[in-house]
Design brief:
Helices cover about 55% and strands about 10% of the residues. The protein has eight helices and four strands, in the order βαβαββαααααα. It has two domains: about 80 residues, Glutaredoxin, CATH 3.40.30; about 110 residues, Glutathione S-transferase Yfyf (Class Pi), Chain A, domain 2, CATH 1.20.1050.10. The chain binds glutathione (GSH). Glutathione binds next to helix 3.
Length: about 200
């Protein structure tokens, strides 16, 4: 049995979306980031970074949301895992790109503009984050302006990984990036995405 550790209110929402796409049975340990459950010796043995999401797939332990989704899609023979090696490589490319260019930058921007209590927000952090997010959205806008999906002719784990990381984008004004807006709407319209979103927003 697969166990997912991580609350829907964390990057584990990405894994929950993938699990809903795959329709496989799993156990969910709904641990919040930085919660005491993520500081136990047992949890730190699984992920010494103390972060969620983590999966335990019948004894195989894996962290990092992008890697988890690539693994799950491939292992379960999902049509979301591109068969063509070039499309597969594009799925890796976009997943690594998200981690490098968008992931923490977007979280910092949202935290320091709205999510954190006002007294903990730092305008300088928000500004630096926004100046990194904008060029990343320019790159994504250009990509999804040329082709409907990021890695091949169909929606794939590449789209899922980048769009799920852009959950915050759903409540942002993306008017400057109309192709991103359209693509993000198409991605999050999927039933599995709606299921994961409902868990996050419950
Ligand atoms: N690169 C990691 C980042 C994981 C991460 O930052 N998780 C956050 C929750 S969204 C966390 O557990 N933070 C708690 C901490 O850093 O102690 C991934 O994509 O899985």
């Amino acid at each position: 049995m697969l166990t997912l550790y991580g609350s829907a209110r964390s990057r584990a929402v990405r894994t929950l979306w993938m699990l809903a796409e795959l329709g496989i049975a799993y156990r969910h340990e709904d641990y919040l980031p930085r919660s005491p459950e993520t500081r136990t010796p047992a949890f730190l043995a699984m992920n010494p970074n103390g972060q969620v999401p983590v999966i335990d797939d019948d004894g195989f332990v894996l962290a990092e949301s992008m890697a988890i989704n690539l693994y799950l899609a491939k292992k379960h023979g999902s049509p979301l895992y591109p068969a063509d090696p070039r499309h597969e490589a594009l799925a890796w490319q976009w997943s690594l790109w998200e981690t490098d260019k968008l992931d923490r930058q977007l979280v910092n921007y949202v935290n320091h503009t709205s999510a954190l209590p006002a007294e903990q927000r730092d305008a300088a952090v928000a500004e630096a984050a926004w100046s990194a997010v904008q060029p990343a959205l320019d790159v994504l806008n250009s990509a999804v302006g040329k082709t409907p999906w990021l890695a091949g002719p169909d929606f794939s784990v590449a789209d899922l990984n980048v769009a799920s990381a852009l959950y915050r984008g759903l409540s942002m004004d993306l008017g400057r990036w109309p192709h991103v807006q359209d693509w993000l709407t198409r991605c999050w319209s999927r039933p599995a995405a709606k299921q994961a979103r409902a868990m996050r927003e419950a």
